[in-house]
Amino acid sequence: MNLLAARRMAVAKLDAAGVPDARLDAVILLAHALGTTRAALALTPSQTELAPDQLRGLEQALNARAARQPISQILGARLFWGREFAVTSDVLDPRPETEILVAAALHHPFASVLDLGTGSGCILLTLLAERPEARGVGVDLSRAALLVAQRNCERLGLTERAGFVQGSWFDPVPGRFDLIISNPPYIAECEMARLSPEVRSWEPRLALTPGGDGLAAYRAICAGATAHLSPGGWLMVEIGPRQGRDVAGLFQAAGLAAIAVLPDMDGRNRVVAGRYLPETA
Length: 281
Prior knowledge:
single chain; two-stranded antiparallel ribbon; alpha/beta; Rossmann fold; seven-stranded mixed β-sheet; 12 helices; 9 strands; Helicase, Ruva Protein, domain 3
């Protein structure tokens, strides 16, 4: 099968499976199967024949995508803040919206950071890569997720400044930090059925929803934040678009000051930030 026929076959298969952006995904998976980039693929003659192992690899990737497995899991990696992070079904797929949380954190100085529910480690490791003098700890309940985070840490050369521990929120972590940051599970139970198959069926439920109204993780984080923040330190969390008022209220009840709800690029509420100022608490 030549390149032109393979591309047509790939698009048809993904279209038939109802995959959004089937044409783009077909090109991505074809480049992956050929071990090349999309840019190089565009310059490859359409009559180029695929080797048997390349065709097998393409068929496997297409079958996975037709089953609605996310592209990042098929490729095994996702770009986040310009860096490549390993991704598996044990962690959330790093999303562009979460870069808003990173950008908000980088507006402030910090020498120590605690990432609660670290998953792939993309938030913590990005912050440490951008702040060469900082150190940090990532916490996650999932041992499998921590293995992914540790792999990403090693790939980025940050093992001397980042540590990972297993446990629930603040339980395994002593001390205080200049920055506490989290993209916790926040999807309400009633919203789970409306998620895309890529999310609902392939990403870890533990990282998606705490059940109920979706606010349980924020309640736990706010309950322990001031005991683990350095004076003047910041707490920042990613939120769902309709959770700004509720989460800001939890921040206020916890005694945080300078509370702000920050939008994403689409103008939707995406981050709540608050500062620990003991003299005002």
